[in-house]
Sequence to fold (238 residues):
Amino acid sequence: MLIGWTELILFTAVLYVLSFLPTPWRRNWYRQWFHLWSRTWVHALGVDLRVHHKHREGLPERFIMIANHPSSFEDVGIPALFDVDSLAKIEVRDWWVVGRISAAAGTVFVKRESRHSRSAAADIIRQRLEQGRNIALYPEGGIKGPRLQPLFRHGAFAIALETGVPIVPVYLHYEALHDFHWGRHSLLRNIRNIMLTRNSRANYYVFDAVYPDDFDDKASYCDHVYGLYQQWQARYLD
Fold:
């Protein structure tokens, strides 16, 4: 763990300095380094991160990845495994050092309570998809609890219908669920709980893409995918 934190601190310092380069100079290589940086976070936290490929077909060339959101860990766990641009709450952009690195790597930020901000973020997501990028987001709209929230938000499904880009669902299961869950305590305490957990296993289950062509509207699309998550929760958590 000491080696992991030394590696993380040094890599963070390098990425922070490089984040001040003009955007055209950074291009793709900075984003690739960001994914490596996310892996150093996984190493430093001591998490046994495992991806389980439950899909029968390969991942599509372009996709919108969605996942349940029980912990702060998936903010580094997802980009550590997948080449995606993440959607994050606007507050992350103001986090010291981390916010600047995330912004430089292409993270899309949104003020959840602002309709204008949500619309602007959706426009950026469409542009990224047109550019061939993949997007990752959390349709629960934030970390609300260790179990699924009653509903998913429709935004990802509306964009999928508009663009024809499929949804790739990932179900996240932390075996020490309450150690990983970020509740009312601070982020630093959540990091401490993750580092001190007796069971560091994090299971990320990747399932077949769900294509928008099979649905007439965002509500039915969302309800279908939410039903799949309920099945996976019953299988892996209950």
Observations:
- Residues 2-236 form a domain with the Glycerol-3-phosphate (1)-acyltransferase fold (CATH 3.40.1130).
- The chain has nine helices and seven strands.
- The first helix runs from residue 2 to 18.
